[in-house]
Every structure is written in C-alpha cells, then in structure tokens.
Amino acid sequence: MSSEFTILVIHGPNLNFLGTREPEIYGKNTLDDINSLIEKKAQELSLSIRIFQSNSEGSIIDIIQQNCDVSGIIINPGAYTHTSIAIRDAIASTGLPAVEVHLSNIHAREEFRRNSFIAPVCVGQISGFGVHSYMLALEAIKSNILAQIDIRR
Ligand code: DQA
User: Fold this and answer.
1) Which of 18, 97, 119, 147 is least crowded, fewest Cβ atoms below 10 Å from its Cβ?
2) CATH for 1-74+104-109+127-134, among 3.30.70.580, 3.20.110.10, 3.40.50.9100, 3.40.50.10090?
3) Pocket of ligand 1, beta carbon within 6 A
C-alpha cells in the first residue's frame, strides 16, 4: 500500500543513550529498537516516516525547517521540552500538526518536568507509556491529519 502521508519523527537529547540510560525510568529498549518498532507501526498504518535524533537544540530546529514538506511531526524533545521556546517556535512556524511524546510520565516526576514549552503548539501530548507512547502518537497523528482533511471538505 502506498503511503499518502509522511511523518517526521524527532528524538531529542540523550535519547541516543536509551537502553543504558536510567532503564528503571526509560526502559531497556535502545533507540534502534524503538525506531524499528516505529517503522513497523508506521508500515501498518501506511505512513512514511523520516526519523532523526539530535542532542542539540539548533540541529533540531534545522531538522524541523528542512522537513516542512511532511504531513505531521512526532517529537520527543527530551529535556528541551522544559526549556526550549526556540523549538516551540520552530514547530509553530511550520503550521503542521505535531504530537509531543515522552517515554516516562513527566507529570509524575520532578516538578520542573511538569511544564512543557512544546505542548501548547502540539495537537496533544502522550506521556508515560514507554515505547508504546510512540505507537499511540503515530495513531494520533494519522487520525488528526485525516480529521483535518475531513473538516476541509
Ligand atoms: C523524556 C522526559 C524528559 O523530562 C527527559 O528530560 C528526557 C526524556 C521522556 O521521554 O520521558 O530526556 O522526554
């Protein structure tokens, strides 16, 4: 089946260390494991995907600006969630639907993790379901894109 929609998936800082990084919080899957699961799920949903990981704020903004031709964005901004107005502005400037993803439940952790600068420019936030958060995000972005098309008809 051909993929009508392409989704940009961005993993932010320190997510390249998944597997060994605080496994009691983030699980034992490596980023490669997670990306394989994302690719499988995307195929099931007939979505094309472009996946990137970066530890740097500027590079994440470049990735967003260079991939504006996609239909939607899934982003786990890592710690930039709680600090980056620049990534928020980059997402907003695309006008694309975006879903914010977290492996851990950021609302059940330290107080500083509860605030997201990114969530207000996203259609929603999925937090706390481990690797399954990404699977839910793929379903959510697809249904949001389809709903927007329906509204425009
Ligand atoms: C995270 C949560 C953030 O607070 C943290 O800085 C991360 C990972 C998550 O996926 O649970 O790097 O985004």
Assistant:
1) 147
2) 3.40.50.9100
3) 14, 76, 78-79, 81, 102-104, 106, 113
Query: Considering the entire predicted model, what is its pTM?
Result: 0.96
Is residue 26 annotated as part of the catalytic site, yes or no? yes
Per-residue pLDDT band for 80 (boundaries 50, 70, 90) equals very high
Reduced to 3 states, what is the DSSP secondary structure of residue 14? coil
Is 23 in contact with 88 (CB distance < 8 Å)?
A: no
Helices (H) and strands (E) in the chain, counts: 5, 5
> What is the 32 CA–ligand 1 centroid distance (Å)?
17
Query: What CA–CA distance (Å, rounded) separates 143 from 146?
Result: 5
Contact 90, 65 (CB under 8 A): yes
The confidence score (pLDDT) of residue 152 equals: 83
DSSP string, 77-112: -GGGGGT-HHHHHHHHHHT--EEEEESS-GGGS-GG
